[in-house]
Amino acid sequence: MEFSKIIFGVLGAVMGFGFLYETLSAIWCAEYFTLGQGALMIVKSGAPAWIGLQFSFLGWSWVGGALGCAIAVAARIGGEVQIKPAFFVRPVAALLVFVAVAVFVGAAAGFYGEQSGRYPLMTQWAGGLEREKHAPYVALQWSHAGAYAATLIGGAALVAWTWRKRRIFTEMVNAGRK
Fold it and tell me: Is the four-CA dihedral 7, 12, 17, 18 of positive or negative sign?
């Protein structure tokens, strides 16, 4: 039961973040989804909430599920002291803040890179897109890359940290038994 609480807790947090992120992205540049990823859309709608809901599921459910499973394994499997789900509220929140920072850095780099001509929108995506939407489109490409990279790096660090904490907790328990 505790194992699944960790998985679903992380999944819920990541999908909640994903919904907020994808909805705000769709408000800024819906074309990123409707033109660039239109084939993935289940409900063909330009409404930001629908886009956010769909892409939080399509783009973040697998991330949250995989991260939740990895953290649950690190926290619960093996002979060392097991860590309870409530322990991960702050670490997962910190991870999502880290991801949010990566999103903003990526978006700023993409936006200003496109504006300066250093990172122009590739031709295959430029068709049918108004010129004033090029910078937001590129910004979202970069912010999504930053989000996934930060989640992968931060998630791996959180799993390693969890293993380390279990070792420390086990040593503390064993020291108290002597």
Answer: positive
**Using H for helix, E for strand and C for coil, what is the string for 61-77?**
HHHHHHHHHHHHHHHHC
Q: 11-45, pLDDT tens digit by residue?
A: 999 999 999 998 898 888 878 777 766 545 555 66
Count CB atoms within 10 A of the CB of residue 151.
24
Domain residue spans of the chain: 2-176
What six digits make up the tokens of 49? 């909430």
171 to each of 82, 168, 175, how far by Cα in Å?
12, 5, 6
Which regions in the chain score pLDDT beneath 70? Answer: 36-46, 123-127, 177-178
CA distance between the termini of the chain: 31
pTM: 0.86
CA dist., res. 41 & res. 55, Å (int): 8
Is residue 36 a contact partner of residue 137, using CB atoms and an 8 Å limit? Answer: yes
Give dist(CA 60, CA 69) in Å, integer: 14
